[in-house]
Amino acid sequence: MGLKIYLDGKMVPKENAKISVFDHGILYGDGVFEGIRAYNGRVFRLSEHLLRLYNSAKAINLNCGISLDRMEEVVLKTLRINKLKDAYIRLVVTRGVGDLGLDPRKCPKPTIFCITDKISLYPEEYYREGLTIVTASTRKNIPESLNPRIKSLNYLNSILAKMEAALQNAPEAIMLTKDGYVAECTGDNIFILKDNVLKTPPSYLGALEGVTREVVMELAARNRIACREEVFTRYDLFTADECFLTGTAAEVVPVVRIDGRPIGTGKPGKITSKLIKEFKALTLTEGVEIY
Ligand code: PXG
Description:
Helices cover about 30% and strands about 25% of the residues. The chain has about 290 residues and is α+β, with helices and mostly antiparallel strands. The radius of gyration is 19 Å and the shape is globular. The structure holds 3-[O-phosphonopyridoxyl]--amino-benzoic acid.
């Protein structure tokens, strides 16, 4: 049996999961989404992801048309019908079908779909050896224009930076704000450790309030590691003792080299390794049960 996709109230085979070319999600990137993970039969931080989805929708004045509780059922049912225990979940709400103009009032009904699939894990050596990454010259969108805290279907800003990373054979790129402060990566948040204090850029700079970022802040508190949201520059990256990225797909992954400079010892740091272990443990003990 092939993969089934939830699409507007129905479970449809992957081959038939198609949406209209008049959908404003396609025409204008008008919509919001979430990337969520399930570990060993439990969905990790599902309510946090759903809250962010509904807040992103609210910020662009998009009514999802179904309640948050119903949306939770959509995710769980899609996992169940595909008999998945470990999965990557992509939940998308678009403005829906309209005419060829921008006006969202011409889109009476949002399009909702949920894809659940086997997770393709990052190579093991990323965690063992750490990542070598670069700074992109493409700056983060300014929050005054399109707030990056909205997880919208407009990812061109991140994609342009990701292309710069690929040109240099790097798996990720650091993105700076228009003023040159470190914001985040193309699909991950960033942390540094300096003199035993963890620092991550505040979301007002234009960083997504990552669910994994929040978990790491909790783990830091639990392990009595000082952690602050702080504005910092590339200088602070280069002179950091440790650096790591966080994201639903990446989890917690060490960074050992940035723009040619080794970070700290040039090997994954001690605190980073501890947080990786703690994070893994948490994913296996908490979460919404699917079955
Ligand atoms: N910042 C941005 C810009 C993101 O897109 C994160 C941070 C991490 O957030 P979470 O909540 O996952 O800890 C994201 C995550 C990809 C990919 O292929 C990444 C994301 C979405 C879709 C694809 O790397 N978002």
